[in-house]
């Protein structure tokens, strides 16, 4: 039965095709005549690959025209038939105009652009970053553009707030802000020491007179990472350096002297890498200086590839990796006023 | 005797990069082929005079060990010197030749030895010291060319006699008594040119790097991280402190001119860049030569011959390339600009060639450029090879290679042949001194 049906359908189609082709021939001939007479009205058709997109995404605009002397897309002369990719920032109407003398035809399509959701950001700090066991401190955090905020050890928390904590061992509180625009992370470490044996921080003076300040320095001024063969400060590093600059320019911290140590991954040559590492240190110093940190507080040193441990690419967080090797370390040297301790 | 791979065939094996314009120069380069040029520098069997070296003979008791060492070292020196074709010992007559009286010329000039020259002699113990009576004869004309006596350490006297032979055959000083500085572990070390007698030279600071001898071998400059910031230290070859820099930013890559001036690279300008400076030997009176804000100018090397030019590495046009400038800082121009990454240039003592590290993406080799014509030869191809330095006679190159699995110092002829490993306990940044 289905066979019989399809057979009949095909016959009908055949008849249809014959009629259409005859019609097409007539149209073709007459259009030729009109064309010779020089009074054909140009035609244009415009299509877009999508009519709604998010900021930063692409749209392909394609058009075909007929009998046109000139075709423009939004005022720009283009090929008579073609396609172009656009990345509109706002909702945009694409209009193709096909003209021939005074005659013209238009076709338009609207592409609706929704703004990209803002990237969430979060900051977290502890009032005292070094406590002795049994003491407590207050964690404070603020976030922007976040739908949810969570902190390790504490779980989901309000988007901004504070909490008194009394960890029994040194603890890193990792805060994560998640929103439509992505996620952001920040952490605060609370170092817990026994009364008699302070946790020795990383300093040139082997702990020096100010272990607390050195520990705070390490919390606020953290390593930044670089692209291969580049000394440009990456966007995520700028955020990190802004945070560092905010702390470094606070009154009690303005006397802190520190060192930036530039490093490279092991693939380049030894001698040149000393230069590249120094450029990375200089780039960070320059950026901090632009944020108000007095450049004379900063010593720059390059270790080239002397400390490189990576054997393959990876992420800056995974060590050893080349991405981790390409970094600036920030080393507390001296200065700063210790915060007063609450009993 | 095992014939060495001939220069021509080694080059045909693909050591030459040709057909690519490599040097930014106005006039067309002279057409003398670098392959041929270098081919006349290293002598291979059949390509120069034939030299036979008879085993030295013990003339007193207790010198057997010294004689063994002497024979081994003399042979290795003359082989690496490559100024003559060494005739293999298996072809020599059985009779010993301790002195001219026992020399039968026809034994050596005729078949199968067919030598042009014969070195021979004896070793004895005179008043507690090893002494060698050393001879060189032209066995075809039956002429005595050398009759001398050397006393002291067996290795040392073999090196001295080898250099004496080279001087006589070529009119130029040999390299067997020369020495190399290098970075070994966390100190600067010095060793004989063949890798023996390694001794510590300096280890002031947690890290010392980039040693460079002065052209006359009287001074050695290097980088020390002793203060936390890398700075230059200059010492006499005996180890006495001459001076150095004490800047607050990275200062590296020292080089000393024939007239005793220092040049180095430093970040002290405040332009966020590494720039080249010249100063007095003790680091005083530093003057800036380059000016490329946010750029890297590094690895300066004084032309040891003229003292008027400095080769250096700059990334001013993108990737690090070899540049040259007058020692006043004027006339800065690219010497070799072909993309990729270049580092650690080194002038040959005769000023004709610049060897340098070139490559990219973790793969680097030693290349030699003819300064006049801009032609380029690739010297190495096994593993990674970097930081070349020239022998005092401009005929050999030492460099660091990881072909054995870690960085060690190697040396080779300037056509890339005759490569041999000098260090076994790790080595980087060699610097060859007189």
Using brief descriptors, characterize the structure shown.
heterodimer, A: 343 residues, alpha+beta, Immunoglobulin-like, 4 domains, five-stranded mixed β-sheet, elongated, B: 434 residues, Rossmann fold, Neuraminidase, 2 domains, four-stranded antiparallel β-sheet, 13% helix, disordered N terminus
Structural notes for this entry:
The complex is a heterodimer of chains A (343) and B (434). Chain A is an alpha+beta fold. Chain A is elongated and about 100 Å long. In chain A, the strands form 5 sheets. Chain A has a 5-stranded mixed β-sheet, with no helix packed on it. A 5-stranded mixed β-sheet of chain A has the order 10-16-15-12-13. Chain A is built from 5 helices and 20 strands. Chain A folds into 4 domains: 1-40; 43-114, Immunoglobulin-like (Sandwich); 117-199, Immunoglobulin-like, CATH 2.60.40; 200-343, 60s Ribosomal Protein L30, Chain: A, CATH 3.30.1330.60. By secondary structure, chain B is mainly β. Chain B folds into 2 domains: 50-170, Rossmann fold; 179-433, 6 Propeller (Neuraminidase), CATH 2.120.10. Helix content of chain B is 13%, strand content 39%. Chain B has helices at residues 7-15, 34-39, 64-81, 105-109, 154-170; strands at residues 50-53, 57-58, 85-86, 117-126, 129-138, 143-151, 179-184, 187-192, 199-202, 208-213, 219-224, 231-236, 241-244, 251-256, 261-266, 275-280, 287-288, 297-302, 309-314, 321-326, 333-336, 341-347, 353-360, 363-370, 376-378, 385-390, 396-401, 408-413, 420-421, 428-433. Chain B is elongated, with a radius of gyration of 23 Å. At the A-B interface, helix 4 and strand 19 of A face strand 18 and strand 22 of B.
Number of domains of chain B: 2
Biggest sheet architecture of chain A = 5 strands, mixed
Measured by DSSP, the beta-strand proportion of chain B falls in 35-45%
Alpha plus pi helix count of chain B: 5
Number of strands of chain B: 30
């Amino acid at each position: 039965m289905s066979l019989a049906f399809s057979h009949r359908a095909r016959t009908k189609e055949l008849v249809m095709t014959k009629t259409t082709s005859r019609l097409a021939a007539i149209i073709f001939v007459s259009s030729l005549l009109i064309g010779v007479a020089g009074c054909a009205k140009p035609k244009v058709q415009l299509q877009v690959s999508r009519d709604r997109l998010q900021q930063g995404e692409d749209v392909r605009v394609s058009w075909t025209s007929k009998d046109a002397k000139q075709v423009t897309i939004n005022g720009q002369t283009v090929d008579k038939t073609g396609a172009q990719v656009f990345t509109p920032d706002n909702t945009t109407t694409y209009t193709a105009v096909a003209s021939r003398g005074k005659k013209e035809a238009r076709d338009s399509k609207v592409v609706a652009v929704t703004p990209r959701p803002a990237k969430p950001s979060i900051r977290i700090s502890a009032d005292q970053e070094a406590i002795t066991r049994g003491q407590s401190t207050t964690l404070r955090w603020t976030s922007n553009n976040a739908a949810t905020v969570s902190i390790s050890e504490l779980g989901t928390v309000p988007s901004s707030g504070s909490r008194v904590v009394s960890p029994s061992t040194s603890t890193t509180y990792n805060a994560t802000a998640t929103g439509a625009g992505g996620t952001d992370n920040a952490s605060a470490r609370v170092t817990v020491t026994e009364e008699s044996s302070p946790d020795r921080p990383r300093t040139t003076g082997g702990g020096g007179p100010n272990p607390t300040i050195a520990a705070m320095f390490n919390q606020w001024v953290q390593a930044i990472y670089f692209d291969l063969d580049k000394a440009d400060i990456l966007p995520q590093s700028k955020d990190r350096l802004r945070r560092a600059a905010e702390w470094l320019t606070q009154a009690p911290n303005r006397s802190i002297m520190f060192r930036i140590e530039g490093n490279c991954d092991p693939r380049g040559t030894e001698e040149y890498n000393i230069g590249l590492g120094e450029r990375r240190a200089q780039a960070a110093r320059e950026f901090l200086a632009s944020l108000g940190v007095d450049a004379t507080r900063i010593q720059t040193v390059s270790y080239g590839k002397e400390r490189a441990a990576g054997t393959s690419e990876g992420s800056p967080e995974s060590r050893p990796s080349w991405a981790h090797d390409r970094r600036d370390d920030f080393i507390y040297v001296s200065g700063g006023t210790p915060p007063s301790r609450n009993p | 005797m095992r014939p060495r791979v001939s220069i021509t065939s080694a080059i045909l094996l693909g050591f030459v990069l040709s057909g690519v314009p490599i040097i930014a120069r106005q006039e067309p380069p002279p057409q003398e082929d670098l392959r041929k040029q270098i081919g006349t520098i290293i002598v291979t069997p059949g390509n120069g005079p034939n030299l036979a070296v008879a085993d030295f003979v013990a003339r007193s008791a207790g010198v057997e060990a010294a004689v063994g060492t002497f024979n081994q070292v003399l042979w290795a020196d003359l082989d690496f010197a490559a100024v003559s074709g060494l005739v293999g010992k298996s072809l020599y007559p059985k009779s010993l030749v301790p002195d001219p009286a026992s020399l039968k010329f026809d034994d050596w000039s005729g078949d199968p030895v067919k030598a042009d020259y014969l070195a021979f002699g004896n070793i004895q113990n005179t008043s507690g010291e090893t002494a060698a009576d050393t001879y060189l004869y032209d066995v075809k004309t039956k002429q005595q060319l050398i009759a001398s006596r050397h006393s002291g350490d067996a290795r040392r006297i073999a090196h001295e006699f080898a250099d004496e032979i080279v001087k006589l055959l070529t009119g130029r000083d040999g390299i067997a008594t020369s020495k190399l500085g290098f970075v070994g572990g966390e100190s600067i070390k010095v060793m004989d040119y063949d890798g023996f007698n390694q001794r510590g030279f300096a280890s002031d600071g947690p890290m010392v790097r980039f040693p460079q001898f002065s052209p006359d071998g009287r001074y050695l400059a290097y980088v020390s991280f002793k203060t936390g910031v890398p700075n230059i230290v200059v010492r006499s070859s005996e180890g006495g402190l001459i001076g150095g820099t004490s800047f607050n930013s990275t200062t590296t890559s020292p080089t000393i001119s024939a007239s005793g001036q220092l040049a180095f690279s430093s970040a002290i300008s405040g332009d966020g860049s590494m720039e080249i400076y010249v100063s007095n030997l003790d680091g005083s009176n530093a003057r800036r030569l380059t000016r490329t804000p946010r750029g890297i100018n590094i690895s300066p090397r004084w032309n040891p011959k003229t003292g008027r030019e400095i080769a250096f590495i700059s990334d001013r046009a993108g990737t690090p390339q070899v540049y040259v400038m007058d020692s006043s800082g004027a006339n800065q121009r690219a010497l070799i600009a072909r993309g990729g990454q270049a580092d650690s240039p080194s002038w040959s003592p005769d000023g004709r060639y610049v060897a340098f590290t070139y490559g990219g993406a973790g793969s680097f080799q030693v290349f030699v450029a003819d300064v006049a014509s801009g032609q380029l030869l690739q010297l190495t191809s096994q593993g990674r090879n970097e930081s070349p330095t020239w022998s005092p006679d401009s005929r050999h190159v030492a460099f660091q290679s990881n072909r054995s699995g870690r960085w060690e110092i190697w040396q080779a002829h300037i056509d890339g042949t005759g490569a041999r490993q000098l260090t076994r306990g790790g080595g980087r940044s060699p610097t060859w001194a007189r």
